[in-house]
UniProtKB/TrEMBL annotation:
The keyword Transmembrane helix applies. This is Uncharacterized protein. It comes from Candidatus Schekmanbacteria bacterium GWA2_38_11. The keyword Membrane applies. It comes from the Bacteria. Keywords: Membrane, Transmembrane, Transmembrane helix. The chain crosses the membrane at residues 16-41, 47-66, 78-97, 117-134, 170-187, 199-216, 228-246, 258-278.
């Protein structure tokens, strides 16, 4: 049996670099496009906000249900991310609606009402995290690490085959997005740390370092299934730095200020990476991949 240490000592395959790059581009593009679609609807078509949020929930749920009918973990992960994205957008619209009903206003440091609402979901978030930490069948590396270091393990982590990665992937996307949103919003709160406090600086530098470390770990995989799943924490942790730079006024987010030249490049990257993922996952012959011949030859 190949150990993790032995696996790390193996040279990085060019094919793994390809799969990692495409997965990261696809997921980053998906997050950016989700932002700009919400901005356009909220600013230019506010009458569509609630129906759009409802449809995001319905379509997201259907994507997750659809994973039931695919045997490939690649398709399950791909559809799971789309489902998780739809459900998350619906959750944000629910907070926007709640903020309007309750009369929640903007704060002096520019926080949107829905983010002020989200800040106080921290209690529910911690309860869900507590369940995940004590549920030994959960295989998330972060929670497995906490169980071992805090001596919470009573039994072995489940090692059986996962039959459907779709719901897990959707849940991973939702939980990771939720966790880091709450982390940043709590950090921005002037009554707690402040947007330019030491805590936010620590989050910025830690996110930068951890994102690149996790991207390096992604190079151990050369299939779109695991690459897509493990790209979620990479992109969303790196997104912390994007959000913090915008909060500091050092970056104008093109998906918020609608910078179409930049967004056109992002949309093109998303569409092209989606095409490559689709072509790869659609191949019937086992072991085939959408990789150029020179990439295959370089590994031989």
């Amino acid at each position: 049996m190949t150990t993790i240490k032995q696996m790390r000592q193996q040279p990085i395959k060019l094919k793994a670099v390809f799969y990692t790059a495409i997965s990261l581009i696809w997921l980053f593009g998906l997050v950016a496009i989700g932002h700009i679609v919400m901005v356009i609807i909220n600013k230019n078509h506010p009458n569509l906000m609630w129906s759009f949020g409802l449809w995001c929930m319905v379509v997201g749920f259907l994507f997750i249900v659809l994973t039931r009918f695919f045997k490939s973990d690649g398709w399950q992960s791909f559809l799971g991310v789309l489902g998780g994205t739809g459900m998350w957008i619906a959750f944000e619209y629910g907070l926007i609606y709640g903020g309007e009903r309750l009369g929640v206003s903007y704060t002096y440091n520019g926080s949107y009402p829905e983010y002020r609402m989200m800040q106080w979901t921290v209690g529910v978030l911690l309860m869900v995290c507590m369940y995940l930490m004590f549920q030994e069948s959960v295989r998330c590396n972060f929670f497995v690490y906490l169980r071992r270091k805090l001596h919470l393990m009573r039994g072995a982590v489940a090692t059986g085959k996962v039959d459907n990665y779709g719901p897990r992937t959707a849940f991973e996307y939702i939980m990771t997005t939720w966790f880091f949103y709450v982390l940043l919003i709590m950090g921005y709160d002037e009554a707690i740390f402040g947007a330019k406090g030491k805590f936010i600086y620590a989050v910025f530098f830690c996110s930068f370092a951890v994102a690149f470390y996790l991207a390096y770990k992604l190079l151990n995989f050369d299939k779109f299934g695991p690459n897509i799943r493990y790209s979620i924490p990479v992109v969303l942790i790196f997104w912390n730095d994007v959000e913090i730079l915008a909060k500091w006024g050092m970056l104008k987010e093109p998906w918020v200020h609608i910078n179409w030249p930049i967004m056109t490049a992002i949309i093109f990257g998303f569409c092209f990476s989606s095409y490559l993922i689709y072509k790869d996952l659609s191949r019937k012959a086992k072991g085939e991949a959408v990789v150029l011949e020179d990439l295959k030859q370089a590994e031989t």
